[in-house]
Specification:
heterodimer, A: mainly alpha, Helix Hairpins, two-stranded antiparallel sheet, 2 strands, 1% strand, B: mainly alpha, two-stranded antiparallel ribbon, binds protoporphyrin IX containing FE
Amino acid sequence: MAGLHKSEFKNPVIRWVDTRLPLFTMMNKEYAVFPTPKNFNYFWNFGALASVQLIVMIATGVLLAMHYVPNAHMAYGSVQSIMRDVNYGWLLRYIHANGATMFFIVVYVHIFRGIYYGSYKNPRELLWMLGVVILLLMMATAFMGYVLPWGQMSFWGATVITNLFSAIPVVGNHITTWLWGGFAVGNPTLNRFFALHYLLPFVLLAVIGLHVAALHVTGSNNPLGIEVKGPQDTVPFHPYYTVKDSVGLCVFFLIYAAVVFFAPRFFMAPDNFIPANPLQTPPEIVPEWYFLPFYAILRSVPNKLGGVVLMFSSILVLFILPWLDTSKVRSARFRPMYRPFIFLLVIALVVLGEVGAHKPEGNWVLIGRLATTYYFLHFLVILPILGKIEKPLPLPESIGKPVLGGGPVPGGAAAKPMEHA
Amino acid sequence: MRPFILASLLAGGLVASAVVLPRSAQAQETALPHVNWSFEGPFGTYDRAAAQRGYQVYKEVCSACHSMQYVHFRDLAGIGLSPAQIKALAASVDVPTIKADGSAGTRPGLPSDAFPSPFPNPEAAAAANNGAIPPDQSQLLDARAGGADYIYAILTGYVKPPVGMHIAPGLYYNKYFPGHLIHMPQPLQADQVTYADGTKATIDQEAKDVTTFLAFVSNPEMEARKRMGVHIVLFLALLVGVTYAAKRKVWADVEH
Ligand code: HEM
């Protein structure tokens, strides 16, 4: 029904806008008074951190793009000039390049949080799946960004990864030619990667918008994994979580600044300070650390197509995680059998990361295969079975009256799945 | 607090593995000697005298083969040269130009000019060096695992080859070069340069000086960066304290 919005704001200017476009009412509803479970721990900071980090990446990226030249003959030199001649260009580049690393650390912790506290379960499946889309978009963005400085690792990383598509039967070679815009990685490739690297973060922004919109429909999960029962379980987002997120944000920026100012090239491969040379393959082509586990999965299969399929599956499996996990209980706190398995999963991923950094020779091959097997076993076999055989600990009655697992159980709080589960 | 510790442990673990993983992939062939560089650590700066001597070594020795195309004469202000000195140094080189009548010629260099390259193109560089192109030295320090220690090691690593080892003409034995056979003849000899400040020009001294200069050109922003970093890190540390206090205050009335 058409009609002006009834604004509750007193300030005449705000009121004038708000009656015509109720942005202020929306922000107030979604961020200020939004009822939020009062028992969040600091793991719940990481979503806010990731959002802020995306803004940092876009801000520094747009400024870098004003000086960067997407041309195979000039890209390397333009980055040198950003570092040497542009006022505070070095700062922009170090914030952006290390920002990718910080972004992935934050998002990986954020995902771990979701897995540990079962945030992907009914009714938050779509919210979780949007998160997996965000992860994929981030990976594509970071991969293409890494190509832009046009160093040796940029060039050869791009060559290795785009070549993966040639494993697709029949059309594979056509696809790689189409991706490259030629018969090898070259100037057309760099141009389109720059265009996409500029575009995708804004697509990310939109998907994050949907992710947050979905969150505000279902409400947040919490460390107990039980639903909010009433106002006694929640606090308004502001000031309680604005201030708590601020603490996390300051700690995050402190660590980030320490890297940018005192060890800015720590995560940068020395080979990427050598200009791209199509005639000279570097002794080892190693992707950025955040891709290493997936790179290890790729190389754990002797067959190229098999490796590619397995690598993509390792992320796609996350899409169906809400249905693979058959347990009705969300939080790992009340799942004595699930808990050790998550830590095994984390260990498997760290091992895979280590394997990805080594040439696939000797024991690394075997270790990589074992860890890959465990990774898939966890999702495809262990999770479906666990939900059936595990006996969860008694769940607390409500967030307001938390009874931690194992403690004395007051009447009525027996181990029964919560209503949504 | 426990989940907070868990969160930081996890984040820390991620950082640690991020740190360890890429490094472990690049194990060095021969352990590098470690030199105590003036520019190390969170407060390190470039030793001006060493960097200036290093510039002399670069100019008189290395620049015969190696380009440094992203560095400009004006950048030498960063190692303490005065504007007049920079102007004079720049003017001492001839820079190709197109004259008013359209013919090719040269003009004296300006502080805004880049350092001249010894060879007109990579082919000429390779032809003059038995097929190997001397790498550009603008950011050579960052382009090698091991950084300053590695450069110093290469410059001082020309030792007698193992007996019976065949070394083809145009190749030289170097203890620290991967594979040991390098196309660069030993670039430094004792007293190859004469230092104006009277420092004795041993191979070791020359190597340390030129490495300091190469460190400077690789990261000319380093001193400004660290200075800014100290302020920002202190400010953020304070901010962590303030926001944490504010958080305690806001949450004081909530039972959780
Ligand atoms: C999701 C957000 C983003 C991520 C994860 C990301 C990641 C990266 C990475 C890993 C690099 C290579 C850094 C290096 O090693 O030098 C890079 C470079 C670059 N990015 Fe981004 N980026 C993001 C957003 C943006 C945006 C929005 C823009 C422009 C509007 C942008 C513009 C650039 C430019 C011009 C470079 C080349 C300069 C350089 O290499 O430092 N980026 N990006």
